[in-house]
Amino acid sequence: MSNSNVPSKFDVVVVGAGPAGSSAAYLLAKAGFKVLIVERGRGAGTKELYGGKIYAPPLREVWPNLDKEAPIHRWVTTERLSFVWKGRVTTLDFKLGRRVAFTTYLTEMAKWMADKAVEAGAVLVDEVRVDEIITEGGKVIGIRSGPDKLYADIVVDAEGVNRILLEKLGLAEKINPDTVALGVKEVINVGKKAIEERLLLTENEGMAWLLMGDITQGIPGGGFIYTMKDTIALGLVLHIGKAYEAAKSGALKDTVPMMLEKLRVHPYFSRIWRDADVLEYGAHMTIEGGLRYMPKKLYMNGLVVVGDAAGLLLNTGYTIRGVDFAVYSGKLAAEAIIKAFENGGPTEENLSLYEHMLKQSFVYKELVKHSGIVKMMEDPTFFTKLPAIVNGMMGKLFEADYEEPTVLEALLESFREEEMSLTRFLLKMFSVVSRL
Amino acid sequence: MRIVVGIKWVPNTQAVRFDPKTGTLIRAGVPSIVNPHDFPAIELALRLRDNYGGEVIAISMAPPGAIQGLEHVLGMGADKAVLLTDRKFAGADTLATSYVLAKGIEKISREIGPVDLAIFGHETIDSSTAHIGAQVASWLGWPYVYYVRDAKLVGDGVIRALRQTEKAVEEYDIKLPAVLATAIKALKPRPVRLSYKLRAKLEKPIIIWTNDDLGLDPRCTGLKGSPTIVANITWMPEVPRKKIVYKPKDPRDAARWILRQLFTDEAVAPFLRKALWGEE
After folding, report:
1. Res. A224: pLDDT tops 90
2. Which part of chain B has CATH 3.40.50.620?
């Protein structure tokens, strides 16, 4: 068959219709560029797994009508952080003073973002895998998919956490298991009314709830509970490198699905979704600590790297940010590309503006600022001892039959039980933080 | 050779859940897909076109959402697609569906060019009737072979269809125009190609015909043209399971344990005895 009327070249080819790729495509299409988005999944969003909290302000810079149009489930009005240890649960519960983030399933959100790009004039081709970014004389000139080549003045790499194309190009190293985590998630059909009654929420109010403690069986990571409109997203994030070591040494009691099962039937948490069915389950790789996952360079002649592929994800243990970072990097990439074309084309020198802008932005600053806590959350002193000590202390304070200890006594006693000294704990914390 | 291949846009039955309270299927929010059993038919059509030239036209009677499925088939390399869509076609059983499809194929023959071959999948995953190929052949008055695993042209206007039975390979030489239906998993479908999918998106080679174009008597289409009556649906209630886990070190203990469980179970033991020793 003839493809005579189909162009073999676009101004911009975006690889991946996730948040980063679609925001870049949207802004570039709006600026008049001929944009093609190539997506592996059947429709945009189908390969996403995240169901959680997304910060709205960075997204509003790309889509000012976000609040009205986007598939927002609930606005986060309550943040919870729970320390879980041997049947005891200590929870910090914070009622927000204003709404900055919402909950949604990224499958729905990414589809909306891609639809916006298509409305603006971008062409979306789904169900097609890009096999290679092609270069000529050190310059990216297009992509290859199976036997088909397609040329572009610039390629936006938004391929996501699994950077097969960047690895082939030599821009990213093979994945180090210590820099990535496994996310597993279940969608539970709790029902709107039950969610609101059981978690003390009203219409449109949502909760983001992170858990740490023995639910991950000694593997760095934690659990999450997010309220959606009618469903709850429940899951675990587990450090892959450490999980692999634990499985190999026999230290790991359960498989990952069993760990999630145990969290679902946990006597304290299970009451929230009692009588409700699990609708879906899935798993996806995610970035453990952003900065370490960032390629040495985020641009080359004819190429920029955005979103997860650029390592733009922050997991502090009490909050997870990735979608807004991805969107913002897509926006900066689009701005840099528009500038580059005004100044003679997408040369390496012109595109270096993108990395410069990204490093000046809140995204990079957040990643640098919080890299200490990311390291801390991987240290067993914190992610296992902290929940043990907190719950030990609360137990001593509130489970006394006759005499209650003082707060200091309770604290010191629970440190002693975990074979930790308070001074050593503080020193360790200081040393981890100051190492950065 | 001009080949028409039939596509059904079906709910992904793996994602369809059953409401045990009302006894109905929960289809809300279930994504639709191209009927998986249509893929061998698509692949056979594309191979024949690649070998002998001509064109492949995908045809579907469906609501407009099926365009997504037709784009998939165009992405695999089909040349054109025809969507037969009209509210008057809704609620059709296989008789009314095959009637509309046959009339669509006749219209293709008249307006695009004579159709030599129509290929359908074995059956659909959402109704499993395997009627459509045979019924379309009947409406058109064309010969029909089903469970086809492969086909090739032999001589002038004759196609040889291969069927595989348990003990033999059967070959049927039939005169074109004809209708074939492929066997489940007979041929591995090719992946979607970037250039084909791009062409589907940009050129939109999808022809949409409503009943105004086909001009069929509405008493013969959709619900009105469907003599099938679903009298009743019953379902298998979920059996409450005991969920016992027994983990002996020695597998022989496990074997003994499971036999003891079975032979001491009042509900199971009589059947086992009867099956093994004919005891009543």
Report:
1. yes
2. 2-220
Q: What confidence score (pLDDT) does residue A171 get? A: 94
Residue type, A138: G
Span B154-158, mean pLDDT?
Answer: 92
> What pLDDT score does A2 carry?
45
Under an 8 A CB cutoff, do A125 and B201 touch?
A: yes
- What number does CATH give the domain B2-220? 3.40.50.620
Cβ–Cβ under 8 Å, residues A20 and A306: yes
Using the beta-carbon criterion (under 8 Å), do A6 and B195 form an inter-chain contact?
yes
Q: Where are the alpha helices (DSSP H) in A154-239?
A: 164-169, 192-198
Rounded Cα distance between A417 and A161, Å, is 40
Is residue A434 very low, low, confident or very high in pLDDT (cuts 50, 70, 90)? low
- Find the radius of gyration of the CA atoms of chain B: 24
What is the amino acid identity at position A32? G
CA–CA separation, B57 vs B81, rounded Å? 5
Give the residue on B whose Cα is nearest the Cα of A3: B199
Q: Which residue of A has its CA nearest to B34?
A: A42
Model confidence band, residue A319 (pLDDT cutoffs 50, 70, 90): confident
Beta-carbon contacts of B119 under 8 Å, excluding residues fewer than 6 positions away, are: B3, B4, B5, B6, B41, B44, B45, B179, B180, B181, B182
Q: Does residue A435 surpass a pLDDT of 60?
A: no
From B77, B192, B202, residue closest to A127, measured CB to CB: B192
Enumerate helices (H) and strands (E) in chain B, giving the number of each: 8, 13
